[in-house]
Amino acid sequence: xxxxxxxxxxxxxxxxxxxxxxxxxxxxxxxxxxxxxxxxxxxxxxxxxxxxxxxxxxxxxxxxxxxxxxxxxxxxxxxxxxxxxxxxxxxxxxxxxxxxxxxxxxxxxxxxxxxxxxxxxxxxxxxxxxxxxxxxxxxxxxxxxxxxxxxxxxxxxxxxxxxxxxxxxxxxxxxxxxxxxxxxxxxxxxxxxxxxxxxxxxxxxxxxxxxxxxxxxxxxxxxxxxxxxxxxxxxxxxxxxxxxxxxxxxxxxxxxxxxxxxxxxxxxxxxxxxxxxxxxxxxxxxxxxxxxxxxxxxxxxxxxxxxxxxxxxxxxxxxxxxxxxxxxxxxxxxxxxxxxxxxxxxxxxxxxxxxxxxxxxxxxxxxxxxxxxxxxxxxxxxxxxxxxxxxxxxxxxxxxxxxxxxxxxxxxxxxxxxxxxxxxxxxxxxxxxxxxxxxxxxxxxxxxxxxxxxxxxxxxxxxxxxxxxxxxxxxxxxxxxxxxxxxxxxxxxxxxxxxxxxxxxxxxxxxxxxxxxxxxxxxxxxxxxxxxxxxxxxxxxxxxxxxxxxxxxxxxxxxxxxxxxxxxxxxxxxxxxxxxxxxxxxxxxxxxxxxxxxxxxxxxxxxxxxxxxxxxxxxxxxxxxxxxxxxxxxxxxxxxxxxxxxxxxxxxxxxxxxxxxxxxxxxxxxxxxxxxxxxxxxxxxxxxxxxxxxxxxxxxxxxxxxxxxxxxxxxxxxxxxxxxxxxxxxxxxxxxxxxxxxxxxxxxxxxxxx
Amino acid sequence: xxxxxxxxxxxxxxxxxxxxxxxxxxxxxxxxxxxxxxxxxxxxxxxxxxxxxxxxxxxxxxxxxxxxxxxxxxxxxxxxxxxxxxxxxxxxxxxxxxxxxxxxxxxxxxxxxxxxxxxxxxxxxxxxxxxxxxxxxxxxxxxxxxxxxxxxxxxxxxxxxxxxxxxxxxxxxxxxxxxxxxxxxxxxxxxxxxxxxxxxxxxxxxxxxxxxxxxxxxxxxxxxxxxxxxxxxxxxxxxxxxxxxxxxxxxxxxxxxxxxxxxxxxxxxxxxxxxxxxxxxxxxxxxxxxxxxxxxxxxxxxxxxxxxxxxxxxxxxxxxxxxxxxxxxxxxxxxxxxxxxxxxxxxxxxxxxxxxxxxxxxxxxxxxxxxxxxxxxxxxxxxxxxxxxxxxxxxxxxxxxxxxxxxxxxxxxxxxxxxxxxxxxxxxxxxxxxxxxxxxxxxxxxxxxxxxxxxxxxxxxxxxxxxxxxxxxxxxxxxxxxxxxxxxxxxxxxxxxxxxxxxxxxxxxxxxxxxxxxxxxxxxxxxxxxxxxxxxxxxxxxxxxxxxxxxxxxxxxxxxxxxxxxxxxxxxxxxxxxxxxxxxxxxxxxxxxxxxxxxxxxxxxxxxxxxxxxxxxxxxxxxxxxxxxxxxxxxxxxxxxxxxxxxxxxxxxxxxxxxxxxxxxxxx
Lengths: 754, 668
Description:
Oligomer: heterodimer
Distance between the termini of chain B: 53 Å
Distance between the termini of chain A: 57 Å
Largest sheet of chain A: 12 strands, antiparallel
Helix content of chain B: 25-40%
Strand order of the largest sheet of chain A: 13-14-15-18-11-10-9-8-28-27-26-25
Structural class of chain B: alpha+beta
Number of strands of chain B: 13
Number of helices of chain A: 6
CATH architecture of the largest domain in chain B: Orthogonal Bundle
CATH topology of the largest domain in chain B: Cytochrome Bc1 Complex, Chain D, domain 2
Radius of gyration of chain B: 27 Å
Number of domains of chain B: 4
CATH superfamily of the largest domain in chain A: TolB, C-terminal domain
CATH class of the largest domain in chain B: Mainly Alpha
Strand content of chain A: 35-45%
Largest sheet of chain B: 11 strands, antiparallel
Helix content of chain A: under 10%
Largest interface: A-B, 70 and 60 residues
Shape of chain A: elongated
Shape of chain B: globular
Structural class of chain A: mainly beta
Number of helices of chain B: 24
């Protein structure tokens, strides 16, 4: 017992208890998120019936004294300003699969209805986006924000003119301060919608609505009521040179603007929000006798900000440090990886990002992928903390669906970025909400961030992905609608763009064939895929350069992928590596020292033993890796290759092997049962298209007609009775090498007819 | 009827991968049947099988165990008596007395089939208790799954099964209601001998005369699986007159009950959604389907609108057992809204779909009908109807002295007497009854709990909704046929997994009281409230059936066993189920807390565990959930006995699960 408690502390697993130990507050109510919080928010704006998705890519500005303002980075408008808190929702927070994060803005200072925040070239506020309500405006674009202490400066462009904006709240007055760059045309800003009409002073400096909102403008801004909607207040910035302006809002009293901010200072970096460097002691296993040992990079779960550290993306900055991004929007840097891990140093360098499940470091620059955008994190003043949250690319179109996660962030040799996006699965896991163009895709972004391209469609819940040395693209996939089982998607560079099977998110690839996976994986092998990792030359891991490893989030396992050529692409299978993980397996990267680092957390079904973990897997040089290292399909069965010489008696004994095969039915139902290949049951397969068939489990037992050790002494030729293609072939082996080491495991593969 | 018998055998054949042949012998008599697995729990006074007398007995289970891959297994027994295990003709284990104890040495069994023979001798007083276990490195001791067994039928086993089918048919056809036994069936009869047909008191309030006429004329034309005999020759004018007279009499049987109102067609759409949601097609054809399909033996509903009087259908749906305690229709505890909507749906959608009536019937005469009812002895099966003491069928004892293939109700038409009722039998059914007749009457005076359980599984159509031994239920195939009726329901596809629980290990999984509560419909709260479907109540035999399920798996029926909670272990268990442990609370509710993030699936509330699960099943489930339910989303937290969680209780998975067990039993 004592042992249990001691190690529980030592591993310092994050306590995501429903309620915190110290108070009645739930953990997410205690977590310090920071002054700018990116998320999808809904609010209580009654102009539209009921709650509305107030901002899909919103930034909730914490203005102090319980004052908040929501800025929509797609329409570039201040959606609401109010005093009050949050109606908690959202999967990474409350675990809710559907309810959005809501704002308690029942009594706002003001609201704006859904519309572009700035007029287009024709002076219109009509939503002319290709899909109204979704995506970026053509005439205005968000560029990111600067942080100076707790002060935020929003950075965007309107009709080419740079705009910096700061929002402050003081004594009931909300002040929007602008630094307007040179303007080639008049810029018209949408300020507020009220129940009663606005009356505006003739000089445009002040306005008051019949329902009590008073607005005051200084500098280059002139107020006016919308000609068609007198309840709507606008502000015009005339064409011309750079100018500063302020617009103040209050109810019940004439608003006096706050002191004008010094934008030059605010955009040059400022005091850190999280100056404490936290130390943890890593747990380094003794010298391995097993092929692999797992060391634990202890997470700073007991941190002053109660930050939930379920890391879903990471990369090495250098040999000594790594950056990690969490599901709840934090980015941390850990230093000391090169040393003995007795004093690992952790710094919280960013917070308030939007479900950041991918991170990539390129030339020392940290890029983090959230649901809203890829953000470059820039430290302007050398204190390690991010001062500039710069947009790298935000072309991705999102909806409010809880499930459209943005997984992973990878690059190819040319420097292009990639990530995989899920489809908007409904709350029960079956079917989809409205599909938008970037649902269920792999996105490719040019090295400069300027070009966003869809290179794969038809994904449901990929979990993670990889880009191979030759531009190959892989993703995981979770069983569900149109996905009969979990699987590993694979496409060569030449094959792209490809369609990976979910018909609802097929998008423009209307004529594209279904690109079948490298292999399917039954539930007990992988019930929820993670990322993949290609083995680099520098790896010291008992596997070969160019090999592919697949991570199972659901089974907290790492699989070696054994590819078999299939024309110009690949088929093949997987075997489980003898690696034990403390949490799930979501992302893995090889460290320059040759070891493999793995992160994982628990957010949906997984057998992960802890909430989150960051681990290093070391290979015991020379140890026998008890899994095959190569797979071939012969004309009569399979040939398994091992790294070591095999005991001939067992290798030549057919009873050392067994095999089964079955197929799945791909269709609109959730997942699939298992159906006979050898004795097809057409009625059952037909029924599986109409209703869920997961209870069906018919596997063909395949006789091992012969087992023959190859001349190299390291491979075995298996003749399988009635050798034929199968969506799923399982071959179990129970062998020994010449030294008596037991080599026992299961190969799960897919055999295609072509 | 032929098809119905086929269905029975299809069900048995469906478990061909879960089969052994069990040869019982007692007092020099041998009886052979199939067995899904080797297990027994025989209380004092109960025979090992209905065809043997109570008392000491021997049983030999023979067949094969099939392993898809090499296993290294140790075997053990549980129970009392004497038992021997042979695998591939080699003795592996031999125990006498208390059977628990050290397991056999580890036996390496290569992939493929292995002959298995298990011999068991009951205690001297005839009671028996036996279960068969395996264990493997890292896999806790557990009973051998039915799916590992297979066998080929022998002549003796086929005959044994045929006798059993005949015995069941004999009671289902209510033969003992006419062929009465002077001495009765004793203190522990075959339970089905006590079943009665529908009570027809006040039938005129509930059912239309026109439908009654049609029904009496040719019952199987309306319900192919009916046990109602054909009593008149509808091909003759006399027979049609008799139908009309009988119907007229029955229609006159009214009580002073208020007449209900017509169904509200506006509710039909909602009723269709209920019809789909409740999975009614597991046992019925949709009401708009008029041609009965024989294979699945489902009851047609196309004559519902023709049958029921206004309001009567709602009453029937709400309490099907009110006038028929042994009806196959279970009680869904429908709300008023549900019952009204379902009645509306069934009425509206069956209108115009009635089975075509090729005959013209004359006007009936109730007085003549009354006389005829007496002469036909309808009251034998339908309590309350008039009976004539003058009309008497041969006694039960006399019947069993005859050759049933040569005459009487079972014989084919050409050998049947003119006055003999025409039972709804096919050739297979006749053969089964003949085979049964040769065993004598004694088996009706006794029963085996295990056999009762399996009979009920078939006759109550449990497997139409539940998977057993890997065989998918009929509902999985036909449920999509009614999806159209629920298309208007928003969010129907946004729910978590709607899979129903399996029956394969039910007697081993649940305490008897928990099984009984599920069967009787008294389980509160519902263990799986997320299911749109719900387990209806089968109240006729709920207690004996629950006992029988336990005994089928070799367990003495029992209520929950009090667990002495170790507070330290419970504390560890509490941590393990929480978010710092395995995160069980993601899918399982505990206390007032709902599951924190149930997505795609939900788990049973932890408070219910201590009243439901038996300890050894719990460990089987925790160790390898997919070996029990292959499609479950329940994660597997250990590889062998090595837990994912290495820092708790030295990574010993069994101990960690034991800690959770203590925690689950500490929850108030």
